[in-house]
């Protein structure tokens, strides 16, 4: 199990120069799931997708 955690440690970093898939939101979705209803953008492989481009 330690090997898997060590491998993940290098992948689970959010810093300049790295690609990331992130969904930033205001608030803590674990404490309040309704936070997930107010996402302004998503970042996939370092590219920002704004809400206006993804709404249909």
Bulk shape: flat
Largest sheet, spatial ordering of strands: 1-2
| Termini gap | 43 Å
Number of helices: 2
Radius of gyration: 14 Å
Uncertain stretches of 5 or more adjacent residues: none
Helix content, binned percent: 25-40%
Q: What characterizes the major β-sheet? A: 2 strands, antiparallel
What is the β-strand count? 2
Derived from helix and strand composition plus strand pairing, the structural class reads alpha+beta
| Helix-strand sequence | HEEH
Give a topology summary:
Elements: H1 2-11, E1 41-44, E2 47-50, H2 51-54
Written overview of the protein:
The chain is an alpha+beta fold and 56 residues long. The chain contains 2 helices and 2 strands, in the order αββα. It has helices at 2-11, 51-54, and strands at 41-44, 47-50. It is flat. The model has no long low-confidence stretch (mean pLDDT 75).
């Amino acid at each position: 199990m330690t090997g898997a955690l060590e491998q993940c440690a290098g992948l689970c970093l959010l810093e300049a120069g790295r690609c990331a898939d992130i969904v930033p939101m205001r608030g803590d979705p674990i404490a309040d799931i309704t936070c997930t209803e107010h996402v302004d953008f998503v970042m996939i492989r370092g590219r920002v997708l704004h809400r206006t481009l993804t709404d249909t």
